[in-house]
Design brief:
about 220 residues; mainly beta; signal; VCBS repeat-containing protein
Length: about 220
C-alpha cells in the first residue's frame, strides 16, 4: 500500500511540476497576444528541454473577410524563446510580430506553413510550401542572442527539384545547385553546383527581423 501511495505521490508531484512549468511559460506572453503553438528542444546544450512559444496577436481590426467570403484572422504571429531552468523558464529571446498569419491568402496554392524545430541545439524556422519547395532559417545562440548562421531553400516543380540554395553565414559561402535535367521526375535530377564567397559584416539577430516574408539577407559579393 505504501508503495502505491508513493507512486501516486510521485505522479501527482510530476503533474503539478508540469502544470506549474506550463503556467510559468504562459506568463511570458505579452498583453494583446495569445498562445498559438508550443515547441520544445535543447537550445543551449544544458540537457534541458527549452521552450519556443508561437504567439498570435488579437487585434479585432485584423479579423477580415477574405475573397471567399470567409471570416479569417490575419493577426501576425511571433516567437518567444525560453530557457528551462529546473522547473521554471527564463526569457532567452523574442520577436512578437515576425511571422505572417496562418490565414494568409496563398493565391492559387496555400500559404507556406510555418514549423519550428531544433537541430544540434540550433533553432530552425521552416516554411514548407508543398510542391513548390521550402525555405528555412537556422539560428544559433551566440553572445546571448539567437543569430542567423544558415539558410537553406529548395525551389520545386512538383516532385522535381529545380534549384537548391544553401548559405553559411559563418563561413560566408553560398552554394547554388541548379537542375539541368528538365525531364527529371524526382530523384533523377542532375545538378550543376556553384560556390561563391560573399561579404557580411555581422550576423542578423532573430529579435531584429521585422517580417520574414520581406526579410532581405543583404548579401553582397
Amino acid at each position: 500500500m505504501n508503495r502505491i501511495l508513493g507512486i501516486a505521490l510521485l505522479f501527482a508531484l510530476g503533474m503539478y511540476s508540469s502544470h506549474a512549468q506550463k503556467m510559468n511559460s504562459i506568463a511570458f506572453i505579452p498583453e494583446g497576444y495569445v498562445l498559438s503553438e508550443t515547441y520544445y528542444g535543447d537550445l543551449n546544450k544544458d540537457g534541458q528541454e527549452d521552450c519556443m512559444l508561437i504567439i498570435k496577436g488579437t487585434n479585432a481590426a485584423n479579423v477580415v473577410i477574405n475573397r471567399f467570403d470567409q471570416e479569417v484572422d490575419r493577426n501576425r504571429r511571433g516567437i518567444i524563446v525560453l530557457f528551462k531552468n529546473e522547473n521554471t523558464y527564463e526569457l532567452a529571446d523574442k520577436n512578437y510580430d515576425c511571422f505572417y498569419s496562418e490565414n494568409e491568402d496563398g493565391g492559387v496554392y496555400y500559404a507556406p506553413e510555418l514549423d519550428i524545430t531544433t537541430e544540434r541545439s540550433n533553432l530552425i524556422i521552416h516554411f514548407a510550401h508543398g510542391r513548390y519547395g521550402y525555405w528555412r532559417y537556422i539560428f544559433r545562440l551566440q553572445e546571448s542572442a539567437f543569430k542567423l548562421i544558415g539558410y537553406d531553400a529548395s525551389s520545386n516543380h512538383g516532385p522535381r527539384i529545380d534549384r537548391e540554395t544553401s548559405i553559411n553565414f559563418l563561413t560566408r559561402k553560398k552554394l547554388t545547385r541548379i537542375n539541368t535535367n528538365q525531364d527529371a521526375e524526382g530523384g533523377d535530377e542532375v545538378f550543376e553546383e556553384t560556390w561563391v564567397k560573399f561579404k557580411q559584416d555581422q550576423l542578423f539577430k532573430l529579435s531584429e527581423i521585422e517580417h520574414f516574408e520581406d526579410f532581405d539577407m543583404g548579401i553582397t559579393y
